Predict the structure.
Amino acid sequence: MKLKLSIAYDGTPFAGWQSQAAGDAVQDVIERALQKISGGRIVLHGSGRTDAGVHALEQCAHFDGEGPLSPNDWQRALNANLPPTVRILQAEEAAADFHARFDAKGKIYRYVVRNAPVLSPHEVDRVWHVPHDLNFEWLHDAAKIFEGRHDFAAFSANRGGTVRDTHRTVREVSVSQDGTLLTLTFEGEGFLYKMVRMMAGAAVRAALGREDVESLRRRLVGPGPRWNHVAPACGLYLVKVLY
Amino acid sequence: MKLKLSIAYDGTPFAGWQSQAAGDAVQDVIERALQKISGGRIVLHGSGRTDAGVHALEQCAHFDGEGPLSPNDWQRALNANLPPTVRILQAEEAAADFHARFDAKGKIYRYVVRNAPVLSPHEVDRVWHVPHDLNFEWLHDAAKIFEGRHDFAAFSANRGGTVRDTHRTVREVSVSQDGTLLTLTFEGEGFLYKMVRMMAGAAVRAALGREDVESLRRRLVGPGPRWNHVAPACGLYLVKVLY
C-alpha cells in the first residue's frame, strides 16, 4: 500500500529535511522509525527539501508500506517512535502512482518576523528577530514585486549549478501585521534553493530603508549581482504542499 | 540605585528560578550577568520561586546597582550577557525600600493544556498535552471550586514543613477555550509549593471524568489525603507579579 504522510516538524535540532550521512535530518529520523516498525529498509520520498533550521507545519512524503498495518496504525506507530519535534499529523492511503515530489502542484511558505526591541524567550528559533523599526508599507511593496513569473537567478543560491532554468512563478505574496509580528506568505509552483529566504531578506532590507524597491525590481529583469541577504532559517515555515 | 527588573524566561533549560549549587537556575544566570557587568557580586531578589520547567512571561526581581549605569543601560547590558531564553523586558528605578518578594500583592499564573490527539512539534515543552477528550464544563466547574479562601493543605506539596499556615486566597479562576487550547488562569495573593499545578491537575482529572467535583471540594474543607496528580511544569506560566 502506498502511504502519504502529512508531517510537522520543529527544524531547530535537524540538519534539514534531506537525509544526511550523519543521520541527523528529518528524513533520517522518520526512516529509522519506519525501519523499526517494519523490520526492513523503507525509503521515504519527500515533496522537497527544507534547510537546516527551517520548520514545517505540513510537509508531505510518501512510502511503500508492506504488511497488515492500516494508515492509522502507521501514524500511531510512527509517532510512538519519533521524537516530539517530529509529528505525523495524518497518514492516508494514496493512489499506487502517487509521488510526493512529482505530483506537487505548488507550495506555501510563510516567513515570520518579530519587529520589537526585545525578543520573547518563547520565540527563540521560531521567528527572525529584527529589533530596528521596519516600515510596513515598504515591506509590503518590496515583497509584492516577486509576484508573477520571473527569472529568480539573482534570488537563489546556486547548488552546484544543477538547476538550469531559474524561471519560477510566484502565484501570490501576502503580507500581514499583527502587532509587532510581521508575516510574509509566498505561494508558488516551486521555489529555488534559498529563494524564499532571499525574498524575505530583500523585503526586510527594503522595510529598513536600506534598499529601494526599484533596485530590487531591476534584479528580477536584468542580469544583476546575486542578492546576498538571506533571512535566517528559523523564521521560515513550509505551510503546505499543494496537490 | 535600587532596580526593579521585569523578566521573561523559557523554563525548559533551567533548574527553576531559585539559585542552585550547580548554577543552573534562572537566578544564577542573571546573577552571573550582573557580576560580569558590575565586576562585583550582586544578589538578585525574586518575587518568589518557580519550579524547573515552569515559564515566566513577567517575573519580577530587584537588586542594588552601584555605579553610573541607568536602568536602560542595565537592561541592554543584561540582555547582551544573558542567553536568549532569559530576557529583561524592562528595568526601572524602584523606591529605596522596594522588595520584590515582600511588596508583592499577588500573582497571576496561567496553565495551558492542548487537548488534541497529536501535539504540534512547536508546542513541545510549552503546554501540557492531554490527548484524551476533556469535558470543558467539568474543567470549568472543577477549577472554580478553588476560588476564595481555603485551606490548601491537600493541594500543596510539603517542602520540609516550613509553611505552617496553609490557608490562601485565590481571588479569581478563569477558564477559557480556543479551539483545542484550554487555559486556566489563577489570580491569588500567593500560592503554596506546587499548588497551581495541583489545582490544574485536579481540574483536568475532573474534565476526564476520573474525579468528581464534590470529592475535590471535600478536600478543601476537611482533612483529607493529599492530592497527588500534579500537572507537568511545562504547561505553567507565571504571567505577572502584582504590586
